Write the structure tokens for this entry.
Amino acid sequence: MKNIIVIPCLNEINHISSIIDSMAKQATLIGADLIVVDGGSTDGTIQEIKYKENQYDNVFFLDNKKKIQSSAINLAVEHFGAGAEYLIRIDAHGGYPENYCQILIEEATKTGASSVVVPMKTEGFGLFQRATAIAQNSKLGTGGSKHRVGSDGCWVDHGHHALMRIDAFRSVNGYDETFTHNEDAELDYRLLNAGHKIWMTDKTRMIYYPRRTAKSLFRQYLGYGRGRARNIMKHRAIPKIRQMVPLLVAPSAFLVALCVIHPVAALPFSLWAGICIAIAVLTMARERSFAALLSGLPIMIMHMAWSIGFWLQIIGMQKKSYT
């Protein structure tokens, strides 16, 4: 029985060639087709994918007219999923060990899990990207979720999507294509409700490369906040404590305007900002890195954008698409 490896992408010219080369080799080892699904790139990514398609027998290109990642995976399963056992999802701007796909299949076989998720470590190159990586590897930056901070192998309710059994994926009708962000957590909710199990492996992990600018990071987390709100509204789920705390950030910023009436109104925002700065200073002292000192800024951007996005979605100021 064959498998499929899917790489959704959009304007990934800096990464697409190396990730295809890496995954084409892994696809051969596990008997898989590698499907690269592009959402309308304009930077030369499509041309590079088609060049690689001609270079490898097991690499295939798909045009994702809906652009978003959820539709990219669904499209790949629709066209290549017949007779396949496993779907492996790969991020175009990620880094993976040479035996990544093999270990995922071994873990799925050993545990009987319908989905295998992985820890992710963030790494960066430029100053802001390195600061963001430090922020995203910290409990304050990510809320301490297991797939961000690492854990022993265990059953979880959500994690970074890596492998899924095709029959389980189809049994819940795949990703909800109305979700531009948080589609993975939304799918995990339906998988669990359908009786499937999600295993987070400690045998492998992926490397994630974060956004390079404050603007793109803000837009990303604005979308995450909206997606989380949509997930909660769709399933009437109660947010976890680690999700509820950042929700207070945007309201605390609005309270600052009332400090002209009474200075205590600025206290919640000042306390939050002070914690972010203090953690950054402590991290700098521990790691002796200027990027660590700057990590307070991306933490604040992520918290604020996530909170704003969440509340905008809740009050009905919805947005149909994101970049």
Remarks:
- The first strand starts at residue 2 and ends at 9.
- The chain is about 50% helix and 15% strand.
- Residues 214-235 form the longest helix (22 residues).
